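Section 5.1 Outputs to date
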Amino acid sequence: MTSSKRVQDRSRFKRVHELEIAAEKHKVISKILHLFEILKGEPENIMTLRNLDRHRQQFNLPKPNKFSDFLRKVPKLFEMYKDHRGIIWCGMTEKAEELVKEEQEIIEKNGEKTAEYVARMLMMAADKRLRMDKIAQFRRDFGLPMDFRKNWVHNYPENFKVVQPFTPYDDSEYLELVSWKPNWAITELEKTVLGIREGQDCSDHVPGLLSLAFPLKFPVTYKKLYRFGGKIAHFQKREYLSPYADARGLQAGSPEFDKRAIAVMHELLSFSIDKRLVTDYLTHFRREFNMPQKLMRLLLKHCGIFYVSERGKRFSAFLNEAYHGSELIQKHPLILWREKVLSQVGFRGKKKRIETFADISDLDEKALVGSDSEDDHTELHFGKDEAMHCLEDASDTDGSEMDVKGVCREYND
């Protein structure tokens, strides 16, 4: 679908502005969530700025940018003060603590559904097990709690169990499927097209060949750039193996092999709460899910199914059908919670003096959080490319799959 050898070199006419806005929002919320988790792990939920500076790489906050400037941009969520030695500390505001508690309640309430998605990932894996550290990459995307590796997985012994490595050279822990559930071996696309309701008995279902067409939503300029209508129609009619069926007999590089890989990526994106995943994380599962080596090639080629955003240090793949403009059509409770968090983000008109501990003892909460008046608080506008330029993606930089060579311009027959 593109002749570019690098994702960054794609024509600007292929970009979807609305989904770039969604990617920008994710960059901001990911940084805030990361700081929430750091502070939750500290006594009294506070930390000195000097210690916080050790996490600069994880925040992708390059020098000379300062953490204090970042914290001033979210005064309703984070506060700073000096102790009697002049050391600056930061912590969560009362509003932030309420939001963190609310997030935990939402995660616990949706634990059963999250456990189902994790089990279905194991059902798609060739060996019915996955490394725990790889699943951890999807923790926020699936709504898993921070302690899922130590405690959460043991709450669902009927679905999966933790097993030790099988070779002396492997020190990783694995999550292994306990029992196969036919009701879960049905793709989200099958449920939508065939009208299968939640909880409907499908105990006799056996995954096999599928002939369901993928929903397509192309960029508005697609017809001007490409003329492959016949090939797309042929691709949509081609049968493919269900992600839950055994795919070890498929020949790598064949059309059937590639289309099943598209079905696997479609299913994984359907599991995520915001219907987007970091492309690097998808590539980490190529062997387990029997997907091609050059996975980015398929994501770019099938731009009617997926959209790849270049915003941030890591690229993100979106499921086109799940979005109307920049908004999700169906929003998970955690997405509604994140929108509530984003509503608390704003710029300060002026730099405020950091109060000392003695000053704070005589002041109310507004001394730290600041006024909510229009003169003192300006809301962010995520539609602009320059918005929150210092709040870049909080993930580590990883160049894998960044350079894509020889991406085809057409669907294979």
